[in-house]
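Running low. Invent one:
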Amino acid sequence: MPNLWLELDLTGAKKFVLNSFISKCVNRSKQQLRSAVLVRLSKPDAVLQALTTKCHAMHSLTCQDLGLQSGPFVSRMAQATRLTNLVLGENTVVGTDALEQLLILCPRLKVLECHSVIGFNRPSHQSWTVDLPNLEELTVIRKKEMTPGADLSLVRHESES
C-alpha cells in the first residue's frame, strides 16, 4: 500500500472536518500528500496554509464548499509550487484579477477549473498578459446571479505531426 495517506478525499464528509484530523493526515503522510479534495472544513484558511506550506508534493487540489475568499486563497497558492490541477467549487468565488494571479503564482498548472467567477463577461473581452506554457485546460464558470455573459471552456490540443 505505497499510496496510502498520499491522497486525501473528504468528499463523503457529512460534518465539518476538524483541523486536527487534517493535521494527522499530513503527519501520517510524512508531509507527502499528493492530492486533496477538501469539503466541509471547519477552518479552511488554516488547512490551506498547512497543505501549501508543508506538502510540497501536492499536485492536485479540489476545494468544494469551503466558502473561501479569493484574496487569502490566492496568497496561499503561492506556496503550492508543484500544483498542476486546481478545481475551485461554487463556494469559492474568485474575480478575474484573482484568476489571473492564480495563473501567475501556479505556473505549472495544467488544469484550472473555477466554478464561481465574478467579473467575467465574455471571452472576447477578457485578456490576460500571462504566459501559460503548461496550461492544457481552463474552465471558467461565471457566478450566474452576479455576472451576465457566457462561461468559458478551453482545451489545448497538441498539433498532429
